Amino acid sequence: MKKKAVLILSIAFAFVALSFDYKLTVVNFEEGKLTVSIDVLFTPIGTPSFYFYGPTGFVKPSSSTTNIYEFNVREHDFLIPLLYAKNYYGRVMTKANHTVIDIDLLYHSPQITVMSDIKKNVVYKYIKLDIGKAWELTSLNIDGTPIVWFERDGHIVAFTKENFKNGIHRLNATFNLPYGGKKSMTWELFSLNDVIVKYRGDVMPYIVEDVKPYEYRVKSGETLWEIAHRFGVRVGDLILINDIKDPKVIYAGQRLKIGRVKFIDNPTVIVVNLRTARMGLYYDGELLKVYPIAIGRGDSTPPGKYWILRKEINPALYWYGEYIAPSPVNGLGTRYLQLSNPEYGIHGTSKPWEIGRRISHGCIRMLNHDVEELDSFAGVGSTVIAISIDKDFKKHLVDMLEGYSFGKMAKKTSRASGAER
Fold this sequence. Notes:
Blueprint: H1 2-18, E1 22-30, E2 33-40, E3 44-54, E4 57-59, E5 63-65, E6 68-72, E7 78-87, E8 92-93, E9 101-102, H2 103-106, E10 111-119, E11 122-130, E12 136-142, E13 145-146, E14 148-152, E15 155-160, E16 167-176, E17 182-192, E18 195-198, E19 206-217, H3 224-230, H4 235-241, E20 255-263, E21 268-273, E22 278-283, E23 286-292, E24 295-296, E25 304-313, E26 317-319, E27 322-324, E28 335-339, E29 345-347, E30 358-360, E31 364-365, H5 368-377, E32 383-387, H6 397-400
Parallel strand pairs: 21-32, 24-30, 29-31
Antiparallel strand pairs: 1-2, 2-6, 3-4, 3-7, 5-6, 7-8, 7-9, 10-11, 11-15, 12-13, 12-16, 14-15, 16-17, 17-18, 19-20, 21-22, 22-23, 25-28, 25-32, 26-27, 28-29
């Protein structure tokens, strides 16, 4: 009986030792701002004080309402919560359920990879999520329809055979975060003939060839276009290598890595038939859709193998140094897909009646609704093959290109299309 009493007391003392006075929960973490809630688990005398202690000293809340506190934590790797209040009996209460907040566990934005696998009459859609090591996926759906997922090699892999209409769809995920938090995230997907990809495509894998001087410090008043031309690279190279969000915004003193990008093969291939003025969109070697296009006069659109280097919505036109703002006047339509040969691109048009003709200075024109669909599906790094061949588009890419020698493609380039965009 005595032993049983001792065991009960031991458990009781252990429970008291492990109890805490405050329940701290991470509500959200985004763009360097940490939002937490504090539940006081006793009756305090007055309002509890709450702040963090980090590597650079004390961090006070930037704002607070009731039990919700927001902190700016951009310069901190970890934070120690410091809470203080007295209870009804005058005892100082300081113990929180978390003694340290490791910011690295929160500083993670899940990355997704989307691909489709065409098997006869069924298209399998696969989604891979790379999530933080302390994050836990709790639900996953597309447009509200749950999809199956499992964990493999430290990644979340989801798949579905569900049929999807053409257009934009939404992948929704919810996560349990460290320190009791929860987070919901949404990504846009795009479906064309039941093949699903990330909306506006992914940036395909690439390798970088370094170019002298390898690194450059931007001078006052310089533009990305001037720097690219000075070192014989393309604007798109600099954008990708330096992860530039807006090519119009660079600043004096900014360091840029100088190099040239080369893409690795990918499932999306665009075939431009210069003889018939038509374009075929292939995915995983299967034809998805054929579009009417306009091409260059004479041989001003050279055959060759290219890649989509960058993309723009409502593009401006740069014509031999002249800037023409986005509008029907500049003739580029609503989308511009820059090719790896910087003199050429695929874009919309303000003159739809010219589609089907040899009319441009070398670029490939499409109806605006067609180029918007192509832009929604094809990512940066998608292959573009321009050929001149007397046959209709085949269902399989290998049959379309059978017997065509890329070694015979014209290597000359025309500068009639003006300066690189």
